[in-house]
Design goal:
The structure holds two protein chains of two kinds. Chain A is mainly α. Chain A is built from 25 helices and four strands. In chain A, a hairpin with a 6-residue loop joins strand 1 and strand 2. In chain A, helix 3 packs antiparallel against helix 16 and helix 8 runs antiparallel to helix 9. Chain B contains twelve helices and 19 strands. In chain B, strands 1, 5, 6, 7, 8, 9, 10, 11 and 12 form a nine-stranded mixed sheet that branches. In chain B, strands 16-15-18-19 form a four-stranded antiparallel sheet, with no helix packed on it. In chain B, strand 3 and strand 4 form a beta hairpin. The two termini of chain B are 13 Å apart. At the A-B interface, helix 11, helix 20 and helix 23 of A face helix 4, strand 7, helix 6 and helix 7 of B.
Chain lengths: 474, 535
């Protein structure tokens, strides 16, 4: 896998920075571009990845270890805390970029649905676990997440006892978390594994800490992947990662690739990444760095092929422009509700397999909302400060630029991609930008980017651009 | 059978039986031939219909409506339709979670439903409910996702990415992409695009849960030129997004109009599933004309605490169904609407230790609607004493038979369309006996002269069915896709009444399978044209 080395034919430029910053974080601002233009791609990736790796976890709220009774006595219902935490997560997504991008990714891999768990402290503990292991060791991650109270509750590990096994978690551990459907395990492996995972069935207090209970652990012999013994929880993870190394590495690298690069998988790249993962005893950080530094990651064939998730769509636009936002609007709550309406409720994917992304994000119900909500953000910026549209376009293209086609193209390139849009749409875009300004003003040099009409012109053009199909891609 | 190929666009059809229409080829050819033009103005965008491509003939089929109710997560069939005939065994396998006898409402001597499903008892009593026992498939896959996929694509083959309804429409509307029907073919309420409606090129369903929002789209939306986006992935994604935008815009106003044309029925609650059924009803009552709807009720993965959870779900389901049919009944169209439940699998016969059940296999499919004309059970209940080594039942009916039967006996679909939907797999029809016969296919329009005309495939070729109101002269010509006349020319006077005569004799004309058009000129001026498929 060749690292990307900028060259004359394949230069390091705003377009490349846009690609990497958008995909590792959410959106790419002019500040980002200016910050990274004089760095090498390698420095940029190290900066972003190492920065995420050394970031502290989100501070614990006072209710982070509460049990059921404490919530009941608190005077608020559980939804109050759930919403509070979803808002916190949006605040983290806005502030932390890549680390929270990973948390979002992992929360769609090791799925829980917070309403099924129905214990806000468990949600917090799960969230912090994702933050802690997002760039850590995948085997450790798998091992820890299976004992997270949220997961024990969501996939019924808590109900999985000696003499009355519940195979829900065992199945998803293989099918969804490590191997893939029907890939290297049998129904017998699931049944036997379920027995080995028994014992995590005791509350210290109701819906408080979950403890291991020797008495409800099945001590009899189990055969998992042809190995027989009195296996327990750690043995399951050890046997799995010993016997199924190749499948696990391929499975998880494919998922990372689809999420960060393209829905169309390149088998050679996956093979390389899988080897890196295995060579590093399932440490994730080297895999991410190798992928992001590669020539393949920056290849134009992979640019603008990923359909934005609702979170991408909203936060991406918000961060790209970095505009002031209308007062008296609860930004995090707005993001939470609007993303929910477009099909992405944080910590509540559609089902245990998670959001499938790509075309699943788009249908005739969600598409009008995407248009409307992107527009909504622009309206809020406009209400707050009209002049910021003018300041922005001046920074983007330079205040002496008077060629309307150039201005429209530069904004289009910044807001979605360097690909050409259709001629009709380009004509429409130019028409929208010209707006009410008399045509001859553009010809005789009367008009400039300092004119009082400019804020409105830029605002209208942005509102037009966010409705174009290309805006849904990144 | 050897076939001459009149032009290069048709496939090598060595075997007519398995000839498959390739729409990509069709679209390519259209580009070459310059037919089927879609023109876009700069501001007032409109689709200009080509002289040859018009609504597919299938639009002329019956006015019956099918509502698919997806029970997501794997509904427990044994606690839905309780096998009273083997009650002791059933109860022994499920000491904690069986429905006690005192809480079972018997539908007949052998089967009953839990009392929390009582809202549908009147429908059973009035002959508006049937149950198909033990629906499933061989080698049951116990993954939610794989099994849902199998129910949608009708095959365990992962390479197949189209669903049964998607293929059904694909066969019926080969020119869908350039000549979409005026109304959405299928609507999904309360869920994203389901694989069921996916074809190879596009999805045939429209998702909606906020019709009011569509008003704005209808007023301000734009139709995009969707040609020449390129074949690289970026281009494909742009094509997909443009098609999705166009579909949304195209149908926004008809859907919003249908919604505005109808009123809420009071009895629905604020429950999310009630809201879905209410929307379906509004679209039906508002005269949308869409024939297939799909709604989804989730939460059936009852690994733990099943009794409470299942009771809540089945109460919601049955109350909503009761309200839905009361609503449609009050409007006078209940007999036109058939509803069918389905789920990716049933659940294990024996309960697990968590007062729940793990993933199972066969389960009943329930059909609702006065159009059923009688209650009853179809097929044998799976034997509770004959389980596989995981403790799951074997199926009595293959789910594909259910699909094929509903298409054939309720939507009165042509056998070729059904075969296309089922990818030619063998399926026994259940003989639902829902009254599909020739006349069911002849809906009437208000056309004073020619209310119905449809081309119908049979073994020997294609026959044209005409229903004539006023005695008139008819000139009929058939064209291939390039606009060349083929087949029989007809020039005759027809009296009022129903007529049919050969349009294309396949042997004689030696035609390849594919898209053709007929044009009917009545009394020398009024012209009707339609596309049809030769299979």
């Amino acid at each position: 896998m060749r690292p990307y080395r900028p060259s004359e034919s394949n230069p390091w430029n705003a377009e490349k920075i846009n690609l990497v910053v958008r995909r590792l974080g959410f959106g790419c601002s002019l500040t980002d571009i200016n910050l990274y233009l004089n760095s090498t791609p390698e420095q940029v990736i190290d900066d972003i990845v190492d920065g995420a790796s050394s970031l502290d976890v989100t501070a614990a709220p006072e209710w982070s270890q509460w049990d059921n009774k404490q919530f009941n006595n608190s005077g608020n219902n559980k939804n109050y805390y759930h919403t509070q935490w979803q808002k916190q997560a949006f605040s983290d997504l806005i502030n932390n970029g890549f680390r929270e991008r990973l948390v979002l990714f992992w929360s769609n891999h090791f799925v829980i649905e917070y309403l099924d768990v129905n214990q806000p402290a468990y949600l917090y503990q799960y969230y912090v676990l994702l933050q802690n292991h997002a760039l850590g060791n995948f085997k450790t991650f798998v091992s820890k997440v299976g004992l997270a109270p949220a997961m024990l509750r969501y996939l019924n590990g808590f109900e999985n006892k000696k003499n009355s096994p519940n195979e829900n978690y065992a199945r998803e551990l293989y099918e969804l978390f490590t191997l893939g459907e029907g890939n290297g395990y049998s129904q017998e492996d699931i049944t036997e594994t379920a027995r080995a995972l028994t014992g995590y069935n005791r509350f210290a207090t109701y819906l408080g800490e979950i403890q291991f209970n020797e008495d409800s652990f099945d001590k009899s012999s189990k055969t998992i992947f042809d190995q027989t013994g009195n296996w327990g929880y750690n043995d399951v993870i050890d046997i799995l990662f010993e016997e199924k190394k190749d499948i696990i590495a391929n499975f998880i690298c494919t998922k990372i690739y689809r999420y960060f690069v393209s829905p169309q998988v390149d088998a050679t790249i996956i093979a390389t990444l899988s080897n890196t993962l295995k060579d590093n005893d399932f440490e994730l950080l080297p895999v991410f760095k190798q992928l992001f530094k590669s020539e393949h990651f920056f290849a134009s064939i992979n640019s603008n092929v990923i359909i934005k998730s609702p979170v991408d769509l909203m936060l991406g636009l918000h961060h790209s422009l970095s505009f002031e936002y209308s007062d008296n609007v609860d930004l995090e709550l707005n993001f939470r509700n609007k993303c929910r309406d477009m099909g992405q409720t944080l910590f509540s994917p559609v089902d245990v397999a998670g959001w499938q992304g790509n075309h699943d994000w788009i249908n005739s119900e969600t598409l009008p909302k995407r248009w409307e909500f992107a527009d909504y953000l622009l309206i809020k910026y406009w209400q707050k400060n009209k002049n910021q549209f003018k300041t922005f376009i001046n920074s983007l293209v330079g205040s002496d630029q008077t060629n309307v086609e150039v201005i429209v193209t530069r904004l289009k390139d910044f807001m979605f991609c360097p690909y050409e849009i259709k001629e009709e749409e380009m004509i429409d875009a130019v028409g929208v930008f010209k707006g009410e300004v008399p045509e001859n003003y553009f010809e005789d040099g009367t008009w400039s980017l300092n004119d009082s009409t400019v804020p409105r012109q830029v605002y209208d053009l942005m509102r037009f651009l966010v409705t174009l199909p290309e805006f849904q891609l990144k | 059978m050897k076939l001459k190929k009149p032009n290069e666009l048709h496939l090598n059809a060595h075997d007519r039986e398995h000839a498959h229409w390739d729409r990509r080829g069709f679209l390519r050819t259209l580009g070459m031939a310059g037919a089927g033009a879609i023109s876009f103005g700069n501001s007032a965008l409109s689709v200009v219909e080509s002289p040859f491509l018009t609504q597919a003939l299938s639009d002329a089929y019956s006015d019956r409506i099918l509502v698919l109710i997806r029970l997501k997560g794997g509904n427990d069939g044994l606690n839905t339709i309780v096998p009273v005939y083997d009650f002791d065994l059933y109860a022994n396998k499920r000491p904690k979670i069986h429905i006690p006898e005192s809480r079972i409402h018997k539908l007949n001597d052998d089967f009953g439903i839990p009392d929390f499903m009582n809202p549908i008892v009147p429908m059973w009593n009035e002959g508006a409910m049937k149950v198909i026992h033990g629906v499933g498939y061989e080698n049951q896959n116990l993954s939610h996702f794989k099994s849902s996929e199998i129910w949608a694509t009708t095959t365990p083959d992962s390479d197949v990415t189209s669903g049964w309804m998607g293929r059904y429409y694909e066969g019926m509307y080969p020119d869908y992409m350039i000549n979409p029907p005026k109304k959405p073919l299928a609507l999904q309420v309360g869920g994203g695009g389901d694989l069921i409606f996916d074809g190879d090129l596009t999805t045939y369903s429209f998702s909606v849960s906020s019709p009011q929002r569509l008003k704005k789209v209808a007023e301000s939306g734009t139709l995009y030129d969707n040609q020449n986006n390129g074949t690289h992935l970026h281009g494909q994604q742009v094509s997909f997004l443009r098609e999705a935008s166009n579909t949304t815009f195209r149908y926004a106003s008809v859907i919003n109009d249908a919604y505005d044309n109808s009123k809420d029925f009071d009895a629905y609650t604020n429950d999310n599933f009630d809201l879905q059924m209410n929307l379906v009803s509004r679209f039906i009552k508002g005269g949308l004309g869409t024939k297939v709807y799909m709604v989804t009720l989730g939460g059936f993965d009852t690994h733990a605490n099943q009794p409470d959870r299942h009771q809540t779900l089945m109460s919601r389901l049955t109350r909503a169904i009761e309200t839905f049919y009361d609503d449609l009944g009050a409007f006078g169209i209940a007999d036109k609407v058939l509803s069918m439940t389905f789920s990716e699998f049933g659940r294990r016969v024996a309960e697990n230790g968590s007062s729940g059940t793990d993933h199972g296999s066969a389960a009943p499919v329930m059909l609702f609607g006065p159009g059923l004309n009688g209650n009853g059970f179809i097929a044998e209940h799976p034997n509770l004493r004959n389980l596989n080594k995981q403790g799951n039942m074997s199926n009595s009916i293959d789910f594909r038979s259910v699909y094929a039967s509903v298409l054939t006996d309720w939507l009165c679909s042509d056998v070729n369309d059904v075969n296309h939907s089922m990818m030619g797999s063998d399926h026994d029809l259940l003989g639902l006996g829902l009254g599909c016969n020739g006349t069911e296919k002849l809906p009437l329009t208000d056309d004073t002269i020619l209310p119905l005309h449809a081309a119908v495939n049979n073994d020997l070729g294609v026959r044209l069915y005409l229903s004539v109101n006023e005695s008139s002269t008819f000139e009929i010509d058939v064209f291939d896709i390039l606009g060349r006349k083929v087949g029989t020319q007809i020039n005759t006077r027809l009296d009022s009444g129903q007529h049919n005569f050969p349009l294309l004799d396949i042997e004689k004309n030696r035609l390849a399978p594919g898209q053709y058009f007929y044009k009917i000129k009545v009394n020398g001026n009024k012209t009707y044209s339609k596309s049809f498929l030769v299979r």
